[in-house]
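Working notes for the structural subgroup meeting. M.R. asked for a predicted model of this chain before we commit to crystallization trials. I am recording the input and output together here so anyone reviewing the notebook later can reproduce the run.

Input as submitted:
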Amino acid sequence: MVAFGKKLKERQLQEWSGFYINYKQMKKKVKQYTQQIEVGAQDRRHVLKDFSRMLDNQIEKIVLFLLEQQGILASRIAKLGEKQEALQQQPDISQISELREAYRAAGQDLLKLLVFVELNAIGLRKILKKFDKRFGYRFTDYYVKTRANHPYSQLQQVCKHVGIGAVVGAISRNLHELQDRQGSYLSIYDQPALPLQDPVVNSINAAVDRLTHSTNFLNFLAQHALIMHEELPSPTEEPVDDQRYHFMSLLLNLANTFLYMVNTYIIVPTADDYSMSLGAAATLCGVVIGAMAVAQVFSSVYFSAWSNKSYFKPLVFSSIVLFMGNILYALAYDLNSIWVLLIGRIFCGLGSARAVNRRYISDCVPLKIRMQASAGFVSASALGMACGPAMAGLLQSNFKIYKLTFNQNTLPGWVMAVAWLVYLVWLWISFREPAHETAETQAPQASNAETTENDVLEKGLKQPLLASSEDQQEDEDADQDYDESEEATEESRLPATSIQSAYRLLTPSVKVQLLIYFMLKYAMEILLSESSVVTTYYFGWSTGSVAIFLACIGLTVLPVNILVGSYISNMFEDRQILLASEIMVFIGILLSFHIIIPYSVAQYVSSGLIMFVSAEVLEGVNLSLLSRVMSSRLSRGTYNGGLLSTEAGTLARVVADGTITLAGYFGESRLLNTTLLPSLLICISSIIATCFTYNTLY
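Returned structure, recorded in token form:
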């Protein structure tokens, strides 16, 4: 893998080369500090002082150049403003067009400046991480706090682009006013929501969003999907994506996600009653619900591998298997066989094509709308989770057609079988198989200097700032010494080819995040899967009441994500939200225990909401951090980051559902406390693990 120092050199503009962070020199200095401390030539206090001074000098160099360029841009915009003022007195269409192009040229230069800030911000971030890792200090926290909060802070200029916002606003406002608005004289300040259809302004806004590391609702939802991007997307990626992209095919993938989540949760309110009608214990509902998750552990792997060759065929296979599984689930009642019921659920799990849905979005949706598609994936999952129990509450009929029984237990199977049959027909008619890329396919490269410069600029704009995918790795080059070219072997760039090779890429930070994901999925599955048994035992709830409760819980997902994604994530660091959410999940679990007699509806519902909502917040932040600390080699291939997180979550569901069934042997009176105890212990373990890795979560 090409080291960051090499990438920095490739991306920097030649005429500005003397003003970038000297990452290579600072990296050598960190190595030198290590050697000096080992032999006793320097004490740690002197090292900290010297390194702080070096950082201050580097930041000062960057900031002074940044201010100079901002001044040049401001002067250009001021002169253009004078011309614009004159044109208002004597309008001339040709001169207005020339003025608009002049503003766009200023916008292009602003983009270069934004990329300049980006590269330096990433360089500062990486060298601080390297220093912390080598010396075991919390130096980053100290340095950022002391510099960022100082009244004369220069770090603010790099990390918060102080001053650039004014230049961005000036260019956007004036281009907006020059654009034909069909006679409207409103400015962007009068109608801030009014979109300005100008590619330069769109590119500037995208760059500023990444630079400020702002996390809006759309970004937050997309992070739930854990659809990772390659470390270095090429400038020619967009045309290829546009050729492979087909809106109806994307819609079919989202519909598959929605239907699968409905299929998962539609049986939860009636699983205990169905089990008892077949002569089994009510707590066998854990096995009935969990059978789907057990099969999904295996199906996720082969669907992920299959998507390397095709997207259409796996989706067709998924629909057929899910159709058959739901038919078997419905027929189990008339056949009076618990085994047919379980086999039906296993078939449904074998049809889980979520790995294909994720992969399609990652590989075939253009970058410009990939965030929206990822958010759609999460929204479809959340909507399906809420609709499943709600539909179960509506299916309260009881009748027969010939020898087939249609009641609250079998109707979920029949309804989902029809849904998958309709989906299969729609899929067959409308899906368009994208052309899979071959190893020999090479994108044409530009030969002129202007195109090369634009390529460098586009490379910068496609990289997330401050929290870039280059920082997803645990500083992979920190413990290795590179030669002058700082290049590693070609093999180190390849994606993981097996579970073992993927596991070797997991750093302690990634393992802790996967543990947290396991914990939250385990706690949520315990709450949802045993809700019917627990509420019937303690409160005598009907199937309809359980369905309403579960549907209401599911409907909290999107509002919670709006709140966290739009507000909370902009006020606090992700790692702070992560730890706070874990503590709230712990509190929710603790409050759920049956200690106070009698056990009330208010206690159960309030504690369940605290735990579930906190777990939802935790999931978004967890997957956001996971996408940053995970190696970029896990961004593509069969054994990718999305697959690993899916396997962790699915395994948690399997263990949780198995726990419910095993706890049933102690009797329904002890079911609640017996199943909550493992949740509590796993939650405590994850909180402790988070505290140990807290300083690596950037």
